[in-house]
Write a structure and sequence with these properties.
Helix 1 (2-34) packs parallel to helix 4. The chain is α/β, with parallel strands linked by helices and 232 residues long. The termini are far apart. It has a seven-stranded parallel sheet, sandwiched between helices. It is built from eight helices and seven strands, in the order H-E-H-E-H-E-H-E-E-H-H-E-H-E-H. Helix 7 (182-192) links the parallel strand 6 and strand 7. The chain has helices at 2-34, 49-59, 77-82, 102-110, 153-156, 158-162, 182-192, 209-219; strands at residues 37-43, 66-72, 89-93, 119-123, 140-146, 166-170, 197-200. Bound molecules: guanosine-5'-diphosphate and magnesium ion. The site of magnesium ion (MG) has 4 residues, from helix 2.
Length: 232
């Protein structure tokens, strides 16, 4: 009986994911026709996603036209932190659902005014499991690993790291006091995500942010590449 049950659960999940994939493709087509580049940011709770976004919105204000969709299980605290930085922000409160899906993102996107014409950033619900399976129609998936989490996390959560084009090692300003083993962390990331581009940075001090901006600029659609996103 339990085997049968297990079989049924699996089939329902496949159906849900199939539906999500269709909606994600629709989002992708919409984002492409709007000319907006979409970044999906994933990590454990507390790795520094919102702090990273706060700094991006501040540093790139006036250079890129951005918008943010932020997902949380409860509260709109993150949206409050991200407001008044010159970009529209919409909070999705999932009420217990552990990931964002393509439908939620599509509806939230419609509420962003003005429409972000260059860059849409999505802060996903903080966890390294559920969001991994849900394509939102993004162009780039980023997974963040802070120096306080332990160097073995990429090995424990290989699916999410493997799905990322960019891996951020965050909070490097406190790496030393945390006894962070940089070599082990980088080796583990490369083992599960050999093709990902890795950035080591601190959203608090700003160290390493410029390398990320330079890389991001190269990924933007052709018409936006002329924009200078770095100060220098
Ligand atoms: N030292 C240090 N702390 C950071 C950095 N980024 C975030 N934090 C802190 O980490 C905690 C969680 O950050 P938050 O941005 O809310 O993480 P989120 O849950 O992933 O959105 C907060 O206390 C932040 O101040 C960083 O670069 N360096
Ligand atoms: Mg957050």
């Amino acid at each position: 009986v339990s085997e049968q049950m297990g079989h049924r659960v699996l089939r329902i999940e496949e159906a849900v994911l199939g539906k999500n994939d269709q909606l994600a493709e629709r989002n992708r087509a919409r984002f492409k026709s709007d000319g907006v580049f979409v970044l999906n940011v994933l990590s454990s709770p507390g790795s520094g996603k919102t702090t990273f976004l706060e700094r991006m919105l501040t540093d790139l204000n006036g250079k890129l036209q951005m918008g943010v969709i932020v997902g949380d299980l409860e509260t709109d605290n993150d949206a409050k932190r991200l407001r008044d930085k010159g970009a529209p922000v919409t909070q999705i409160t999932t009420g217990g659902i552990c990931h964002l899906d393509a439908d939620m993102v599509s509806k939230a996107y419609e509420t962003l005014t003005p429409r972000p014409s260059d860059l849409l950033i999505i802060e996903n619900v903080g966890n390294l499991v559920c969001p991994a399976s849900y394509d939102l129609g993004e162009d780039m998936r980023m997974v963040m690993l802070s120096v306080t989490e332990g160097e073995d996390k990429p090995l424990k959560y290989p699916v999410v790291f493997h799905s990322a084009q960019v891996v951020i090692v965050s909070k490097v300003d406190i790496a030393e006091v945390c006894g962070f083993d940089r070599d082990a962390a980088l080796t583990n990331i490369r083992r599960v995500a050999p093709n990902a581009t890795i950035f080591e940075l601190s959203a608090r001090t700003g160290l390493g942010m410029d390398d990320w901006y330079t890389y991001l600029k190269e990924k933007l659609p052709e018409q936006r590449k002329a924009v200078s996103v770095n100060d220098g």
